[in-house]
Amino acid sequence: MKKKTGKTNLIKRYDNWGVIFILPWLIGFLVFQLYPLAMALFNSFTDYDPLRGRDWVGLRNYIRIFKSDLTFRESVRTTFIYVLFSVPAKIITALLVALLMNLRLKAINLFRTVYYLPSIFGGSVAISILWRFLFKRDGVVNGILAPLNIPGIDWLGNPRIALFTVSLVSVWQFGSSMVLFLAQLKNIPPDLYEAAKIDGGNAFQRFWNITFPSLTPILFFNILMQMINAFQEFTLPFVITNGGPSNSTYLFSMLIYDNAFRYLKMGYASALSWLLFLTIMIITLLLFKTSARWVFYGDGG
Asked: pLDDT tens for residues 194-223?
């Protein structure tokens, strides 16, 4: 009986140490994530100005968003276009480069490093300024096109292509997705390809029946993470075009920023933030719901 009690005390002691080790993360989660999330929900039902205080308005902010805010509708449309272009383009580019980097080529490690480097910088201000310098009317890109007798393109001043130009920054930073694809490619047993060759399978059949199903867990993860990041994109359009021209690059995150920090309408901005959160959550749940049909795991799941 004493031995059992001593073992129980030892387990409790380990549990106490576990709580101590997780405490910094737990405090950070409660203070910097859960509390702001709860306060944003509360503020979304108020007319909150940091200089004047809060006035309870109920659903008025949400009614105004859907009923009379034309900028909201335009920013939602622009954001969905941005997500629907940048996410698939980034995933496809990362997959193609990963397949290339999986080949046995000379100096392959150098190429892998070079392709991954842009992802280190993230959506930084420096990269945004560089992109604006490259694609301005008299920038480097038009300078390269000039000797080819191609007239200069107003990449950032034309509403029809400005969003496409901004999206290219995100597509260019495909390194993290590429590394994940490459790691999964290395885990595919070579025996599967040898058996497929013996059965007469060509390159496309081997890719479609072996490579692609093996990559679907990573594909699902990449789509999910890139989708979440794309919906929250802010730095690139803010620095490169400041939402212009004609609001063609005015994403939903910029609408939240303007209402919160330019117009000091914190309650209205909180309502917009919660709508963005709910949109991302719904799309995430839909992805998880449909994943059972196209994601294949090594254990047969």
From this structure: 999 988 889 899 999 999 999 999 999 999
